[in-house]
TrEMBL record:
Keyword annotations of the record: Dioxygenase, Heme, Immunity, Iron, Metal-binding, Oxidoreductase, Signal, Tryptophan catabolism
Gene Ontology MF terms in the entry: heme binding; indoleamine 2,3-dioxygenase activity; L-tryptophan 2,3-dioxygenase activity; metal ion binding
PANTHER family according to UniProt: INDOLEAMINE 2,3-DIOXYGENASE, INDOLEAMINE 2,3-DIOXYGENASE 2
Coiled-coil intervals, chain numbering: none
Protein name: Indoleamine 2,3-dioxygenase 1
Binding locations of heme b: H312
Domain of life: Eukaryota
Organism: Myripristis murdjan (pinecone soldierfish)
Length: 380
């Protein structure tokens, strides 16, 4: 919880979904006092404040859909949002670090980390599907924990020439990548594609490369010129960036988007990726050793990362491409429901982070395939 001084923020932040639906959020925010961010001290307080301010900002900007956007974020929201963002090293917009990493609590503190025992701190419109979307993404992050723990083991093994340790570390990372993919499958059970497409997506969208906010957004009291920021996306999770650096996956084409997403991560997470990238290349170490188990462990890791990206493309097709085609069809025949007719058309071919979705994801997937060791057999 935040100190009681911040009650005016939390009172609104906790009610964002209902206030957006009743079209009252903007007027509530206009009445909100301008609070100092100085009473926020601990990292956790700053994270919760950033989450609260970002949820309010997304609701404020998108309350009236893509045709009723604003050009200015009012001072009483913009100034503390900017200050808290500066202190955390995050941009002043909803990020993966907010909506997923800092947005959960265990109902029973001694209970497990699972769907039943986890709840969101704050939400956005979309009801159970929004909860499912953030929670499943969090569970994917949790499934990745063993792999993250094994990255330093692999790196130390390369430094000391310990082939066994590197092979074992890579095998553990492969298992964890498999768990991530299996966990991603839960999205289907917990998120309704039409709700994701028609309701939720706009609240994750940003004001960079977005045709309905071509100039960006003025943060009143911060600077007079508008600023542009990309919307929230799991491309801002440090996980796949870490595996790419470890395995030597190189993103030549369209890499600007992925690199830019590193500026939407907590500085310590970005630093971890950079630290991994500065190590002696694992791929050439594996090639030099000419050890069957090691080569196989490396190939397995690449294949699991490839499979995760392939499955993710299927997910994106189910949640974006298919509903987009259906929405177009319904609009053309004049049968569109209110939800479909309000779905943001500016986002049709784009992800919430603003990328041209499928060609981008397929290029990234193909670049993952290029990391396979030549000549060594690939796992089926
Ligand atoms: C309904 C679920 C999901 C949808 C519709 C979705 C959609 C997208 C889209 C459209 C992009 C393109 C970049 C952008 O514009 O933001 C993207 C990128 C990305 N997403 Fe997801 N995503 C989903 C779930 C997840 C989850 C749970 C993860 C967790 C690992 C994830 C990881 C990534 C990564 C790492 C990228 C960057 C591309 C890459 O490195 O392969 N996504 N996603």
């Amino acid at each position: 919880e935040l100190p009681s001084y911040y009650k005016p923020w939390m009172d609104i932040a906790l009610r964002v979904p209902e206030l957006v639906l009743s079209h009252e959020l903007r007027s509530c925010i206009h009445k909100m006092p301008l609070l100092s961010s100085q009473l926020l001290q601990r990292h956790r307080e700053l994270r919760l404040a950033h989450l609260a301010l970002s949820v309010m900002s997304m609701g404020y900007v998108w309350q009236e859909g893509e045709n009723g956007t604003v050009q200015v974020l009012p001072r009483n929201l913009a100034v503390p949002f900017w200050e808290v963002s500066q202190r955390l090293g995050l941009p002043p917009i909803l990020t993966h670090a907010d909506a997923v990493l800092a947005n959960w609590r265990k109902r029973d503190p001694d209970g497990p980390f699972d769907m039943q025992n986890l709840e969101l701190l704050l939400s956005l419109p979309g009801g159970e599907s929004t909860r499912g979307f953030f929670m499943v993404t969090l569970l994917v992050e949790l499934a990745a924990v063993p792999s993250l723990r094994n990255i330093p083991i692999v790196i130390n093994g390369v430094r000391s020439g310990d082939v066994e340790a590197v092979a074992k570390g890579l095998e553990e990372i492969s298992e964890s990548l498999q768990d991530m993919k299996d966990t991603l499958k839960l999205m289907q059970a917990h998120v309704e594609p039409s709700v994701f497409y028609g309701i939720m997506r706009i609240y994750l969208s940003g004001w960079k490369d977005n045709p309905c906010m071509p100039k960006g957004l003025v943060y009143e009291g911060v600077q007079t010129e508008p600023m542009e920021y990309s919307g929230g996306s799991a491309a801002q999770s440090s996980l796949l960036h870490c595996y790419d650096e470890l395995l030597g996956v190189q993103h030549e084409t369209e890499s600007a988007f992925l690199f830019r997403m590193r500026n939407y991560m907590l500085p310590a997470h970005k630093q971890l990726i950079q630290d991994i990238s500065r190590e002696r290349p694992l791929r050439s170490f594996v090639q030099q050793q000419d050890n069957e188990r090691l080569s196989q462990a490396f190939q397995l890791c690449v294949s699991k990362l490839l499979a995760l990206r392939n499955y993710h493309i299927t997910v994106v097709s189910r949640f974006v491409t298919v509903p987009a085609a259906r929405a177009r069809q319904l609009r053309d025949t004049g049968e569109a429901s209110e939800m479909v007719s309000k779905a943001p058309t500016a986002l049709e071919e784009r992800g919430t982070g603003g990328s041209g979705i499928m060609s981008f994801l397929k290029t990234v997937r193909d670049e993952t395939r290029d990391a396979y060791l030549p000549g060594s057999s690939k796992p089926s």
